[in-house]
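If you are new to this repository, start here. Below is one unmodified record pulled from the training split, so you can see the exact layout before writing a loader.
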Amino acid sequence: MSAFTHAVRQLGHLLSLKKHSDKIQCKTDESGSNKKGVSESLIELLLNPEIQKVGIWGMGGVGKTYNVKYAIDMVRETNSGRSFDHIVFVSVTHEWSIRDVRNDIIKELSMEEELGENGGASLLHQRLKGTRFLLVLDDLWETISLEELGIPEPTKENGCKLFLITRIHNVCELMGAQAKVKVPTFSREDAWELFCEEVGSMVLLPNIQPLAKSIVDECGYLPLAVKEMGKAMNSSSDEVIWLNSLSIMMQSRPLNSSMELVFRQLKLSYDQLKDVLKHCFLACTFFGDNHEISIPYLVENWMMCGYVDIADEMLLSEAYEKGLHLLKELLDASMLELSKDRDHITINNMMRHMGLMIKSSKFIMRDGLEQLEGPEEEEWKEAEMISLKASGISSLHQSPDCPNLTVLILYNNLQLRSISPSFFEQMAELHVLDLSWAGLDSLPESISKLTNLHYLDLAYCRCLKNLACLGSLKQLLVLDLSVTPIEEMPEELGNLTRLRHLFLSATVNLSRIAGGIFNKLSKLEILQMRASSYAWQHKSKEKEASLQELLGLKCLSTLVITVKGVGDFEFLRNNAVQEIWKNTMGVECYIRGLSVCMKFEGKFNSWSSERQEEDLAGSMLSRAASTIEKQGKRFFDM
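And here is the target side for that same chain:
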């Protein structure tokens, strides 16, 4: 979905991903190293009289509890430990109640006999009042009232402290934590050191060490996973056992009961999510095959999959903002991580394995030239998302029954020449279809049955010409026809009244657009025709589209076109941008015959010119040809 991703970056107030990251980043006291930095930060916070409430958060199994206990032990070993009269450590279960938590605190204080069966909040409050205590609430999933528990509010004056251990950043916020410490996973070096400690010297054998390091990588440097896998492989010198263990992990299957426990611990975080966030997280495991995903690419997929509700009158830029809010919730819940450049998110290997275990047969990912055939009939029937990227498949002659399929990725299938006429007949729920870089010369008739399709990518399908069948896809939001040999824009595309983004870049054969099509596309936000051969005019030939039609597109935020002459550009400048589209608009206007691009930025309300030496269409086609010829094919003879 590269064209859409590029377009999102151009959308008015979404121009800067730095701004995006400002919206989704969590303001925390980040510690750079789990192994040393976190405990040192916690010791400082324990001794700091200005800080009363501290939130410690991070994904399951990362060592939050260990770090807190270590810091407390270090403080206890110094004279500073005498500053607390009571140190109370209580775990809060999932099915907690105020009474259960209070009773656990009472037991920690050895107050059972003193309070008896009728001991309550007021008596506990009286016992703690006037003392200096440290209360640690571990495994906290939601807010809890100190008043109802009977715990005096920690203040600078009374010297008391509250440490909250949670997987959810928002819990720290709602509980009023003055300092928040995120516990990261180990670095690769620290994870390897821990693994070696558990396994022993066998791990350094030349035939074992590469496999061992790959296992540590598959553990995502998560301390709990690294430790349990180390125990499982302890003292083993059999290369076959190591290979088998690595294979099992790469297939997202638990190696043994201990690793099952690790996955269950991680799944607790998933189980706490609301349904839409569960869908969004699981989609990350499908689309994030390299474990790092650009933010626009991820959010666009959520939008196209239907996880972000897009009302008829809503701009996609507004829907994108809603998607960013969902992303922030997943980051706050420790399900995902923000990359250092803050332009991408990452998903921990163990989290990804856990997600793929949940979906197992529902997500099918079989990419690569060794894949010569599509899935079996039963696999199609059960699947929700399928990826067959860059495969060796030459034809898809099935008529699969796919009642649950929402995403089908057939990107870069250069050998795919034919799809059976009825292939899409039973894919009523399909939302996303990527056929870009396919070798198809025609689309099957049944594509018109995809009445719930939101996204269709046909870019770089160099043999594809007749597209009239697309007129039935009335729920389509994004259509990419870049670098296709279409000669005329089908009038049927005027039926796509929900369309928001239309990409026609490098359509070098496009010579005619019938009048009236764009009058019907009133919701269009992006029209991208960079390096297209079609030249717009303010006075067009009879029954052909003109610049006048574009004036009616009130939602337009990005326009990239070529005009026939200087007079047409003057018409666009004088009658369109300054009067209709105003400060949200971005325009690139190429003038045929001149090596110049005129650009308008609405936020500055100004035009600028840029010399254009490069043949844009030729450049795009050349890059495409180079890519394909590396695979022993010719671009125009596919």
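Two things worth knowing about this chain: Residues 440 and 594 are 35 Å apart (CA to CA). The domain at 32-182 is CATH 3.40.50.300 (Rossmann fold).
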